[in-house]
Amino acid sequence: MTVGIVGAGQLGRMLALAGYPLGLDFLCLDPSPEAPAGQVAPLLNGAFTDRALLRELARRCEVVTFDWENVPVASLEAMQRGAHAARIAPPASALACGQDRVSEKQLFTRLGIPTTRWRAVDSRAALLAAIDAVGLPGVLKTRRLGYDGKGQAVVRTRAAAERAFARLGTVPLLYEEWVPFDCEVSMIGARGARGQVVTYPLCGNAHGGGILRITCAPFGRRRWQSLAARYLKRVLAHFRYRGILTIEFFVRGDRLIANEMAPRVHNSGHWTIEGAATSQFENHLRAILGWPLGETRALGHCAMINLIGHIPPRARLLALDGVHLHDYGKQPRPRRKVGHLTIVEPTAARRDARARRLALGLAAGARIP
Ligand code: AMP
Questions:
Q1: In whole angstroms, what is the distance from residue 361 CA to residue 85 CA?
Q2: Whose CA is nearest to atom 18 of ligand 1?
Q3: What predicted TM-score, i.e. pTM, was given to this entire model?
Q4: Which of 56, 77, 118, 191 has the CA that lies 20 to 30 A from 66?
Q5: How far is the CA of 332 from the centre of ligand 1 (A)?
Q6: Sign of dihedral through CA atoms 256, 261, 265, 267?
Q7: Beta bridge partners of 149
Q8: What SS3 class is residue 125?
Q9: Using CA atoms, how far apart are residues 362 and 52, in angstroms rounded to an integer?
Q10: What distance in angstroms lies between residue 183's CA and the mean position of ligand 1's atoms?
Q11: By the 8 A CB rule, do 50 and 77 touch?
């Protein structure tokens, strides 16, 4: 049985590596011949809009999923039509919503999920009106195609906002309040074919320069866990979702404020490979194939540290007791996620101390969520 993956990045690679023990085969589509998943699974090399390759993917696969949130929705919709119509999971409607920060915010509000105060901005006048309505400081973000802090600017004055607009304003934008959060968390869960839902222990996330650096899980108060799970379930039900969905939140006191959602497996869930009874990758596959979902309980106190830019000497990492290394097979490049480390410890205190030491040693930013 073959699973198609549109996008062959590290998420696709980890999906394939989780699927082989279950007896699955994979076929990926990606414009890069060196894409990480293409090193472990057959690759159709071409554009995400290449109709012939999309048809081939649809014809050869039992179900087609995606590992990147900016895959063209029209490509997925094209695969759902014609003689060899593919089953697409998660639904293209969830992908379309997650690609536009405005529709994402509107959905959160409609489902009673608190989110930041915001305004759409498509002109200088709209920006000034947005600042009047939302206040300063704020964050100006592109509505589409932003990731890892790209396409956004924190603004503290009107003059800074106008400078940011001059830089970003060639595309539709969104202006939102800057949230002085206590911490950032993410909730990851899966919904199966019959509507059954499982949720993972909450993840605590520390970012640096807009990029996720460290995740700790389980994390936070019990109230945050139940609130985040309740919010996630509303979005899952809304889309009659199949697969893994992630929502990122800012935490202020006992309030969770939704920042964004990702209709896919997520970087903050990589700890589940060694640290949970069933990994997010396996549960995504189980969900999209209509199989029973696996248990999500944590097997210890876990930390995941992203390796950014380059992989440090392997022998040095592997000499560290209990450190699990994941190398995505990517060329080194500044700000690029090239791998990650996971540790699973018996107590939270030990996990935090080890994660701090590891991050310091890697110069990965020592802040622990
Ligand atoms: P995003 O691309 O929206 O996930 O933003 C990346 C990171 O920038 C977030 O994880 C936060 O650390 C920070 N950030 C984004 N928006 C805000 C905001 N409105 N207030 C405070 N921090 C933010």
A1: 50
A2: 178
A3: 0.96
A4: 118
A5: 25
A6: negative
A7: none
A8: helix
A9: 44
A10: 11
A11: no
pLDDT tens digits for range 234-246: 999 999 999 999 9
> DSSP string covering 194-255, please?
TS-EEEPPPEEEEEETTEEEEEEES-S-HHHHHHHHHHHHHHHHHTT--EEEEEEEEEETTE
In this structure, whether the domain defined by 2-88 belongs to CATH 3.40.50.20 is answered with yes
* DSSP H or E segment with residue 103: helix 101-110
Q: Which fold has domain 183-364?
A: D-amino Acid Aminotransferase; Chain A, domain 1 (3.30.470)
Answer yes or no: are the C-beta atoms of 120 and 102 closer than 8 Å: yes
* pLDDT tens digits for range 312-336: 999 999 999 999 999 999 999 999 9
Q: Can you read off the two tokens belonging to residue 159?
A: 């003059």
Q: pLDDT, tens digit, for every residue of 206-220? A: 999 889 999 999 999
Phi, psi dihedral angles at 300 (to 5 degrees): 175, -160
Domains of the chain by residue range: 2-88, 117-177, 183-364
Please tell me whether residue 257 adopts helix, strand or coil conformation.
strand
Pocket flag, ligand 1, residue 149 (CB < 6 Å): yes
Residue that is written with structure tokens 């139940």 in the block: 226
CATH code, 117-177 = 3.30.1490.20
178 lines ligand 1 (CB under 6 A): yes
Backbone angles phi, psi at 281, to 5 degrees: -70, -45
